[in-house]
Amino acid sequence: xxxxxxxxxxxxxxxxxxxxxxxxxxxxxxxxxxxxxxxxxxxxxxxxxxxxxxxxxxxxxxxxxxxxxxxxxxxxxxxxxxxxxxxxxxxxxxxxxxxxxxxxxxxxxxxxxxxxxxxxxxxxxxxxxxxxxxxxxxxxxxxxxxxxxxxxxxxxxxxxxxxxxxxxxxxxxxxxxxxxxxxxxxxxxxxxxxxxxxxxxxxxxxxxxxxxxxxxxxxxxxxxxxxxxxxxxxxxxxxxxxxxxxxxxxxxxxxxxxxxxxxxxxxxxxxxxxxxxxxxxxxxxxxxx
Length: 289
Ligand SMILES: [Ca+2]
Ligand SMILES: [Ca+2]
Ligand SMILES: [Ca+2]
What we know:
Layout: H1 2-17, E1 31-33, E2 36-40, E3 54-61, E4 65-72, E5 79-80, E6 88-89, E7 94-97, H2 103-108, E8 112-116, E9 129-137, H3 149-157, H4 170-177, E10 185-193, E11 196-198, H5 200-205, E12 219-226, E13 233-240, E14 247-254, H6 260-288
Bound molecules: calcium ion (3 copies).
One calcium ion (CA) binds at residues 84, 86, 88-90, 122, 143, 242.
C-alpha cells in the first residue's frame, strides 16, 4: 500500500513537470522496518568530509505522535567552519510536503510544513518546533555552500541515491527540487507547536534501527511531536545541511484517523455519557411530575 501511494505521489509530481519517468522507481520507494519508514542516503556524497555526510532519515507514526530520526556525521549543533558567516555549518530545517506538487510550487504557495530541530542553525524560524504555512529560503550563501543543486552534482558529488532511496536519480531530484538554489531552511511560517528531542535510548526503545541497513552515523538525532500539529496523507520530506553539501529525502504516508482502539474507546465514552444524560432526563421528568 505504501509503495503504491508513493508511486502515485511521485508519478503525479513527474507528470506535472513532464520531466522524469518513474519506471523502475517503485521497487526503491520507501522501506518499512519495525514501523519506521527509512530512506537510505548515498554514503560519501557529503562534500567536505564525513561531518557533512548524511546516511539516513526515518519516520515513525503512532496513534498520537510523529517520530523523526536522522543519522550521519553532522552533530545537532553543527561543526566549526571558518568560511561560514557564523563560523558554524549545521543542519538545515526539515520540510514535509503533503501537497502533491513539487517543492518550489509548495514553497511559493506557503503550503509546506517545516520543522526546525537544530536550535543553533541559521533558520528564519524564531525557535525550534513545528511550523505550518511555510515558505522555504536558502542559507547556503552564508554557509560557504553550493549556489544550486546542479552545482553540487556537477562538482562530482552526485551518486545513486544522492537524495536517498526515495529520490534515487538525478532526474528524480531535479524533478522534485529543481536544479537551482537549495532552499534549506524555513523562511517564513506559523509555529504550531514544539518538538521533544529524544535520547538514543528512547529511539532504540521506539524500534529505530539504522544498523539494520548498515547506515548508522556517528551522530543520530531524533525528536517527536504531536500528530495533531500535522497534516496527513502522502508526503515527501527532505533536509539538507546548511551548505547543501548533503541532503536526503523520504517519501511516505501519514494516516489521518485515530487507531481502531481509539475509536472503540470513544464509542464507549459516548455510550456512558449518553446513558448518563438519559438517566438525568428521566430524573428531571420524575422531579417535575
Ligand atoms: Ca550521504
Ligand atoms: Ca551556519
Ligand atoms: Ca545525500
